[in-house]
Amino acid sequence: KCSPQDSSMNATGVRMVTRSRSRGPGAGPRGGGEKAAPLWKGEAAAEGRKSPSPSRHRRKTQKLNVAYDREEEDTKPPRAPSWEPRDWRQQLLNIRAMRSGKDAPVDWLGVEHCYDSDAPPKVRRYQVLLSLMLSSQTKDQVTAGAMQRLRARGLTVDSILQTDDSTLGTLIYPVGFWRSKVKYIKQTSAILQQRYGGDIPDSVAELVALPGVGPKMAHLAMAVAWGTVSGIAVDTHVHRIANRLGWTKTATNSPEKTRAALEEWLPRELWGEINGLLVGFGQQTCLPVHPRCQGCLNRTLCPAARGL
Ligand code: SF4
């Protein structure tokens, strides 16, 4: 079973991309008692990961420096958003208070807790990506069970490629869309072996190009596996709650539109926190059907409360 002891990476502890990636996500508030084992590029290089070509690496580094340059951050005031929800700060404080127990399924079964912390870094990163692929349309408990069965056999790119489809299906069942996921996991694993030396790519663009990997998974993989906050990871919980609270300027009809709407106004330093915070809130209080508004600290501030 996935457990807090298994974890060494932590999405809430990640920091924004800056010039240096010298600190790990394990330092975050949800990482209490966890071994710090950040999966940084330096670590990848040290273990002989296939490096991108020098020119490609230089391009990527420059791009990151331009986007998140520390001096620029220091000298230029942050751009004020043209719009922000009226009560969002108090609503956020209330959700943090309601989530202070950290006792939702995502808090002990989420992606930060489903990889083998004793495995080599690139294996851990692969396990992070795999658990994210399994997690779509699937409860955390079911994803955790599938990961446990896969890990019991040694979960690496090679071991998956050597496993026949029927056996892989048996191992991951009953995750949602398990037949399609068998296909995607095999295809993605083959690509990772051929192009990335068994590691996972370190950009959202390359991650979403993998079969079965969507934007939410890519942003979470960047955060948990690489320690880089690349965007807000919006799943069905974040999408639903953002709309109920009026955190999008107009109603949105897809997680991707919600992500874009949130990134318009939410301060970047909060991007890494939002997913875990709202997923747990959605699992315990702001349920998809029959949300527990009576016990919610936001009931007087929530535009949706009266209509539910
Ligand atoms: S008041 Fe109800 S709908 Fe609004 S955030 Fe709370 S639980 Fe969700």
UniProtKB/TrEMBL annotation:
Q: Where in or outside the cell is it found? A: Nucleus; Mitochondrion
EC annotation from Swiss-Prot or TrEMBL: 3.2.2.-, 4.2.99.18
GO molecular function per UniProt: 4 iron, 4 sulfur cluster binding; class I DNA-(apurinic or apyrimidinic site) endonuclease activity; damaged DNA binding; double-stranded DNA binding; metal ion binding; oxidized pyrimidine nucleobase lesion DNA N-glycosylase activity
> Which InterPro entries does the UniProt entry name for this protein?
DNA_glycosylase, Endonuclease-III-like_CS2, HhH-GPD_domain, HhH_base_excis_C, HhH_motif, NTH1
Q: Where is this region: Disordered?
A: 1-86
- Identify the domain of life: Eukaryota
Q: Primary place of residence?
A: nucleus
**GO CC annotation terms, alphabetical:** mitochondrion; nucleus
Tell me one Pfam family matched here. HhH-GPD
Keyword Transmembrane included in the entry's annotation: no
The UniProt catalytic activity note for this protein reads: 2'-deoxyribonucleotide-(2'-deoxyribose 5'-phosphate)-2'-deoxyribonucleotide-DNA = a 3'-end 2'-deoxyribonucleotide-(2,3-dehydro-2,3-deoxyribose 5'-phosphate)-DNA + a 5'-end 5'-phospho-2'-deoxyribonucleoside-DNA + H(+)
Domain HhH-GPD intervals: 134-284
Q: Composition bias, kind Polar residues: at what positions? A: 1-11
Q: Which family does it belong to?
A: Belongs to the Nth/MutY family.
Which HAMAP family does the record match to this protein?
A: Endonuclease_III_Nth
What is known about what this protein does?
Bifunctional DNA N-glycosylase with associated apurinic/apyrimidinic (AP) lyase function that catalyzes the first step in base excision repair (BER), the primary repair pathway for the repair of oxidative DNA damage. The DNA N-glycosylase activity releases the damaged DNA base from DNA by cleaving the N-glycosidic bond, leaving an AP site. The AP lyase activity cleaves the phosphodiester bond 3' to the AP site by a beta-elimination. Primarily recognizes and repairs oxidative base damage of pyrimidines.
Q: How does it assemble?
A: Interacts with YBX1. Interacts with ERCC5/XPG; the interaction stimulates NTHL1 activity and NTHL1 binding to its DNA substrate.
Listed name of the protein? Endonuclease III-like protein 1
Lineage of the organism: Eukaryota, Metazoa, Chordata, Craniata, Vertebrata
